[in-house]
Amino acid sequence: MSDRKPLMAGNWKMNLNHLEAIAHVQKLAFGLADKDYEAVEVAVLPPFVDLRSVQTLVDGDKLKIKYGAQDISAHDSGAYTGEISGPMLAKLKCTYAVVGHSERRQYHDETDELCNAKVKAAFRNDLTPILCVGEGLDVRKAGNQVAHTLAQVDGGLKDVPAEQAETVVIAYEPVWAIGTGEVATPEDAQEVCGAIRGRLAELYGQEVADKVRIQYGGSVKSGNVAAIMAQPDVDGALIGGASLDADEFVKIVRFRDQ
Ligand SMILES: O=C[C@H](O)COP(=O)(O)O
């Protein structure tokens, strides 16, 4: 039995302004307050411009909800217009920084090399990277999902030492299941998440591999989360669309109640 604490993280993507963010986090706090949910870690990943509002609310009300950014610059400062650095996110007391989400890879041409630099930037600034990996539909149809995803894990973690690697979060998100309503079956999720843990064991040893939390992401909802979470190598979910509905997100967090 693993003692990995499940991580349910809501990736708001480019939704909710800073005022809406406050209302949303308040609803989450209300929905999670009356019951012991400490066995599950809850995080929100708002747009950059919301982070200060979320920080103020979480600090002020001593909420147990964690938060992080959807991206991080590979650089710590300098002439990089539009970028947000690790030191800035750390100053806002972010816990997490998402790296290499498929939408960044697809629309911003982020490579494994850049993701690797961002993973290192996160660690350099005491942030936990959530490294996103996963195959597109063509790769899945060709049956190459495991090899493709493991190559992204190798690339993202290149030269990352074991003491850092054991704290990374890896999110397996088959691109064909993101925002489409198409959910990978629990067995599909386990196949790749299990392979990711196997690769971590090859790279760092079983003890490290057993500590790493591996999330599934792609059309997760309250109705399918329990079956996905029942898989031995799935330690949480990265939730997009369903995280924008506070009641639904609370139900997902409470997957054990279902
Ligand atoms: O980061 C979250 C994933 O892209 C999943 O998004 P989705 O739950 O809307 O399919």
Automatic annotation (TrEMBL):
<keyword id="KW-0963">Cytoplasm</keyword>
<feature type="binding site">
    <location>
        <begin position="240"/>
        <end position="241"/>
    </location>
    <ligand>
        <name>substrate</name>
    </ligand>
</feature>
<comment type="pathway">
    <text>Carbohydrate biosynthesis; gluconeogenesis.</text>
</comment>
<dbReference type="InterPro" id="IPR000652">
    <property type="entry name" value="Triosephosphate_isomerase"/>
</dbReference>
<comment type="function">
    <text>Involved in the gluconeogenesis. Catalyzes stereospecifically the conversion of dihydroxyacetone phosphate (DHAP) to D-glyceraldehyde-3-phosphate (G3P).</text>
</comment>
<comment type="subunit">
    <text>Homodimer.</text>
</comment>
<keyword id="KW-0312">Gluconeogenesis</keyword>
<dbReference type="GO" id="GO:0005829">
    <property type="term" value="C:cytosol"/>
</dbReference>
<feature type="active site" description="Proton acceptor">
    <location>
        <position position="173"/>
    </location>
</feature>
<feature type="active site" description="Electrophile">
    <location>
        <position position="101"/>
    </location>
</feature>
<feature type="binding site">
    <location>
        <begin position="11"/>
        <end position="13"/>
    </location>
    <ligand>
        <name>substrate</name>
    </ligand>
</feature>
<feature type="binding site">
    <location>
        <position position="219"/>
    </location>
    <ligand>
        <name>substrate</name>
    </ligand>
</feature>
<dbReference type="GO" id="GO:0006096">
    <property type="term" value="P:glycolytic process"/>
</dbReference>
<comment type="pathway">
    <text>Carbohydrate degradation; glycolysis; D-glyceraldehyde 3-phosphate from glycerone phosphate: step 1/1.</text>
</comment>
<keyword id="KW-0324">Glycolysis</keyword>
<dbReference type="InterPro" id="IPR013785">
    <property type="entry name" value="Aldolase_TIM"/>
</dbReference>
<comment type="similarity">
    <text>Belongs to the triosephosphate isomerase family.</text>
</comment>
<dbReference type="GO" id="GO:0019563">
    <property type="term" value="P:glycerol catabolic process"/>
</dbReference>
<dbReference type="InterPro" id="IPR020861">
    <property type="entry name" value="Triosephosphate_isomerase_AS"/>
</dbReference>
<dbReference type="Pfam" id="PF00121">
    <property type="entry name" value="TIM"/>
</dbReference>
<protein>
    <recommendedName>
        <fullName>Triosephosphate isomerase</fullName>
        <ecNumber>5.3.1.1</ecNumber>
    </recommendedName>
</protein>
<dbReference type="GO" id="GO:0006094">
    <property type="term" value="P:gluconeogenesis"/>
</dbReference>
<dbReference type="InterPro" id="IPR022896">
    <property type="entry name" value="TrioseP_Isoase_bac/euk"/>
</dbReference>
<feature type="binding site">
    <location>
        <position position="179"/>
    </location>
    <ligand>
        <name>substrate</name>
    </ligand>
</feature>
<dbReference type="GO" id="GO:0004807">
    <property type="term" value="F:triose-phosphate isomerase activity"/>
</dbReference>
<dbReference type="InterPro" id="IPR035990">
    <property type="entry name" value="TIM_sf"/>
</dbReference>
<dbReference type="GO" id="GO:0046166">
    <property type="term" value="P:glyceraldehyde-3-phosphate biosynthetic process"/>
</dbReference>
<keyword id="KW-0413">Isomerase</keyword>
